[in-house]
Amino acid sequence: MARAKISGKRLFVLDTNVLMHDPSSLFRFAEHDVFLPMIVLEELDGSKKGASETARNVRQVSRFLDDLLNQNKSIDIEKGIPLNTIPLGKELCEKVAGKLYVQTREMAHVLPATLPGTKADNTILNVALALSQEARAERVTLVSKDINLRIKATTLSIHAEDYFNDRVLDEIEQLHTGMFALPPNFWESHAKKMDSWQEKGRTYYRVSGPLCSEWFANQCLYKEDDDFEAIVRRIEGKTAIIEIASDYRHKNHNVWGIVARNREQSFALNLLMDPDVDFVTLQGSAGTGKTLLTLAAALEQTIERGHYKEVLVTRVTVPVGEDIGFLPGTEEEKMTPWMGALMDNLEVLAPTDDHGEWGHSATQDVLKRWVKVRSLNFMRGRTFLNKFVIIDEAQNLTPKQMKTLVTRAGPGTKLVCLGNVAQIDTPYLTETSSGLTYVVDRFKHWEHSGHITLKRGERSRLADYASEIL
User: Fold this and answer.
1) At what angle do helices 340-349 and 290-299 cross, to 10 degrees?
2) Beta strand 202-208 with 195-199: parallel, antiparallel or unpaired?
3) Which of 179, 242, 322, 380 is deepest in the core (most CB within 10 A)?
């Protein structure tokens, strides 16, 4: 294939899994060129059928390629197809300046005997090696979400990279925790023009100072030296309005019989119980109380206060071990094995007597009447009205899946996402590209959303000790 030798450009060879993961990845390489081996098109063709997210992504890639070909019928494919010739949105089009190349002939290169060319991954390696020899003025880079393929590419001296465009942050440590520790001299530097007032039984402060511009809406503030705890309600430049947070560690402020055991849990309950906060994300390791606190807040506001009609619970059905296979029954019955955490927490929230029979029946009654379990597979096209929606194991969702779910929320609905980015079971997702990380970062400036990272385990001394030493 004759290719123009343009100095400074790079040629990215895309693996199939990159396109399956992000259909718009074709247009994410700015001024650089993109190359698709024929084996990639073959693999895409074999994965286009079905209702899964992967199949939908593959069909979208096919539509993109079809649009590009139709818009450039007069252009020789071997000379490259401009990637900025179809409408993709102003932000994306302004950055795209490269061309798309598709393999049109056999590209032979001698692979080691241990890498037979009949395997799809090795065929891609073969193409990348051949391009490296032909495109001497450009650096050929193989882009793949498959770690093993990148390892094999490195052993063959092929430059290989992960697909970075889906990353929300460079490092997960950059993700904000939802809390901000105030310095000891906070009042001296921020209380010169302070106003305070009470409204509907709540205490508010208007403070001014350099730290105000660093805060986010509904971020939780605290001071270690005087037990001051507050929540940011509004930011206006270097001025912020903060509200004194409720202390849910006290029995008088229990939620469905549950009290917070630490500052983080108390802040989480402040967000969960606030009707003005429509979207809440809780991130933390196992045993930090994410599910228990959320269910308690959901039952309190649904059954006792009548703010919502029902509690809707869903999660990604990704098995940790061997798949349990097909399950009989209705949608709710099929989801039951995946909802062990829900059942465990409902047992805690439902009262029990000495014999346990009444408690068990009460739990079942609450489950059937107020708490509905639904599968993520049937969420597309739905609208949730006046519901308290809980998305468990949200770290296993892609940003696109998360968008699909969050946009289902209708009037009067509160949506809570729970997860632990350190326990991702979905292939090709990482801590920095998870859908949970995505929404935490994107919603941090919205005045009707809040986030808390729970760090302290409160399950048991055995669980706490095991998490430290194992």
Assistant:
1) 60
2) antiparallel
3) 242
Give, for 330, the enclosing helix (H) or strand (E).
Answer: none
pTM, full prediction: 0.81
Give dist(CA 366, CA 377) in Å, integer.
Answer: 24
CA distances 197 to 42, 231, 242, Å, are 67, 15, 11
pLDDT mean over 339-349 = 65
* Separation between Cα atoms, residue 206 and residue 185, nearest integer Å: 17
Domains of the chain and CATH, by start:
10-161 (3.40.50.1010), 176-244 (no CATH), 252-469 (3.40.50.300)
Q: Which of 93, 297, 91 is nearest to 82 (CA)?
A: 93
DSSP-derived secondary structure letter, 339: G
- Residues 39-60: pLDDT tens digits? 999 999 998 888 778 888 999 9
Amino acid residing at 50: G
Separation of alpha carbons 309 and 172, rounded Å? 36
Give the start-end residues of each E strand in 261-403: 279-284, 310-315, 371-373, 387-392
CA 140 – CA 144 distance, rounded (Å): 13
Q: Residues 296-317: pLDDT tens digits?
A: 999 999 988 999 999 988 877 5
Q: How high is the pLDDT of residue 341? A: 62
| Residue closest to 99 by CA, chosen among 33, 160, 165, 182 | 33
> Does residue 150 contact residue 125 with C-beta atoms inside 8 Å?
no
Give residue-wise pLDDT tens across range 418-446.
Answer: 999 988 888 788 899 899 999 999 999 99
Q: Quote the CA–CA distance of 312 and 149 in Å, as a whole number.
A: 40
